[in-house]
């Protein structure tokens, strides 16, 4: 499988706060990869650096064979990389339809728009029901669906999800993970950021465990699961955050 995304030794900082200290990771075409770690580990910062929202102070990022380090977010989105940010960030005063149309702006053409919309209705029937309603009137779970659908409307080659299950009920969380499994079956390449290591490791091929801005462990889902289990045994079983990561 060809490498789609290659992040090599990136460093990033917020003023004096250094958030990443040399993060490297790879995502191959068709792969679903998890980026795990506790609060403040540097997961969102890594995604921000990849999407051009933040410029790494060191290191490089290549996407589909092209160096995109330090490029503008718009140009990176055009190349086929979409991010569903933490906290969804849908446009709450715009309708569901308007939100979806904004997502499609990079690949907009009359025929594919209709076609893609039908596909979104299939994946997320609720969006068809709420098509003309303001995004802000949707429930948290529905807003998450809208945020994912909006990102998919751009027909990304790589979809990046930042904690899509955060703050959702167990039932809606199940739904989100089912959806990820469904997208995986369709062959979509995904980089999934999660704190819930146990759930994420059920749906991914490979995982990276971030801790304090560095990759602490990586490997196949099974290998990382074994390391995470081992760490939680050494740290005395119960984790304060209940994720099973324990570090
Ligand atoms: N806007 C900011 N200004 C200053 N420091 C920041 C900012 N955003 C993040 N940081 C710091 O950078 C480090 C990495 O944060 P980041 O948001 O990448 O973590 P995360 O792994 O996504 O955590 P979470 O699971 O809580 O979302 C943390 O130490 C955090 O305090
Ligand atoms: Mg985050």
Would you summarize the structure shown here?
The chain has 247 residues and is α/β, with parallel strands linked by helices.
How would you characterize this protein structure?
The chain is α/β, with parallel strands linked by helices. It has 2 domains: 1-80 and 157-247, Rossmann fold (3-Layer(aba) Sandwich), CATH 3.40.50; 90-155, no CATH class. The protein has helices at 43-50, 73-78, 96-103, 110-123, 125-129, 140-152, 170-185, 197-203, 221-234, and strands at residues 3-14, 17-28, 32-36, 58-63, 66-67, 81-84, 158-162, 189-194, 206-211, 214-220. Bound molecules: adenosine-5'-triphosphate and magnesium ion. Adenosine-5'-triphosphate binds at residues 14, 17, 19, 37, 39-45, 86, 195.
List the topology elements.
Layout: E1 3-14, E2 17-28, E3 32-36, H1 43-50, E4 58-63, E5 66-67, H2 73-78, E6 81-84, H3 96-103, H4 110-123, H5 125-129, H6 140-152, E7 158-162, H7 170-185, E8 189-194, H8 197-203, E9 206-211, E10 214-220, H9 221-234
Parallel strand pairs: 3-8, 3-9, 6-7, 7-8
Antiparallel strand pairs: 1-2, 1-4, 4-5, 9-10
The structure holds adenosine-5'-triphosphate and magnesium ion.
């Amino acid at each position: 499988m060809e490498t789609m995304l290659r992040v090599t030794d990136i460093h990033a900082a917020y003023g004096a706060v250094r958030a990443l200290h040399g993060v490297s990771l790879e995502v191959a075409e068709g792969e679903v990869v998890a980026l795990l770690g506790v609060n403040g580990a540097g997961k969102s910062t890594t995604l921000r650096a990849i999407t051009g929202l933040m410029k790494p102070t060191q290191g490089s990022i290549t996407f589909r064979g092209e160096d995109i380090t330090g490029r503008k977010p718009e140009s990176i989105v055009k190349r086929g990389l979409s991010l569903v940010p933490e906290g969804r960030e849908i446009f709450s005063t715009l309708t569901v339809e308007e939100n979806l149309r904004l997502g499609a702006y990079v690949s907009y053409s009359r025929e594919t728009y209709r076609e893609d919309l039908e596909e979104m209705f299939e994946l997320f029937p609720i969006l068809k029901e709420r098509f003309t309603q303001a995004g802000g009137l949707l429930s948290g779970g529905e807003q998450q669906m809208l945020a994912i659908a909006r990102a998919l409307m751009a027909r990304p080659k790589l979809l990046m999800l930042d904690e899509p299950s955060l703050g959702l009920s167990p039932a809606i969380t199940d739904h989100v993970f089912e959806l990820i499994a469904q997208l995986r079956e369709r062959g979509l390449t995904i980089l999934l950021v999660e704190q819930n290591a146990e759930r994420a490791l059920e749906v991914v091929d490979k995982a990276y465990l971030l801790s304090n801005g560095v990759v602490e462990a990586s490997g196949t889902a099974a290998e990382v699961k074994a390391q995470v289990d081992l760490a939680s045994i050494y740290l005395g079983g119960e984790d304060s955050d209940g994720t099973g990561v324990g570090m």
